[in-house]
From TrEMBL:
Name under which the protein is recorded: Anti-anti-sigma factor
Gene3D superfamilies noted in UniProt: STAS domain
Listed Pfam families: STAS_2
Domain STAS: 44-98
UniProt-listed InterPro entries: MlaB-like_STAS, STAS_dom, STAS_dom_sf
């Protein structure tokens, strides 16, 4: 006897803070995105406020994550790029494909386990592969 099928688990919002985002970091960052996308998030927000550099490979990864999310009805947004990165994103026309916003950062993550709010689960992951 097999267990009845269970509804797919979903997470409405996942926030990722990226501090290094270039070709050298793509294997680790890609693995994080793969794990996050397995959660079937409704929205992924990539916070670039602590990121100093982004290259073409990273932009390609953002476009790939965007395509994968759109296929399942999700949304990818970029938050708080510094002015230099914002210009790079505009030059690459990424701002015409997905939302690039400047807004205040959310509240700091509480230490220890996070208790989900009623009817919602929120996730936050920090990615830093720089040494």
């Amino acid at each position: 006897m097999t267990a009845p099928p269970r509804p797919e688990c979903t997470v409405p919002l996942v926030e990722v803070c990226i501090t290094e985002f270039d070709l050298a970091c793509l294997p680790e960052t890609g693995a994080v995105f793969d794990r996050l996308l397995a959660l079937h998030p409704g929205q992924v927000v990539v916070d670039l406020s602590g990121c100093r550099h982004i290259d073409a490979a990273a932009i390609g990864m953002l476009l790939d994550v965007h395509r994968r999310l759109v296929r399942v009805g999700g949304v990818l947004a970029v938050r708080n790029p510094n002015p230099r990165i914002a210009r790079i994103l505009q030059t690459a026309r990424l701002d015409q494909v997905l939302p690039v916003r400047t807004e205040p950062a959310g509240p700091p993550a509480a230490p220890g386990p996070v208790t989900p709010r009623p009817a919602a689960v929120y996730g936050r992951a920090a990615v830093s592969t720089g040494g």
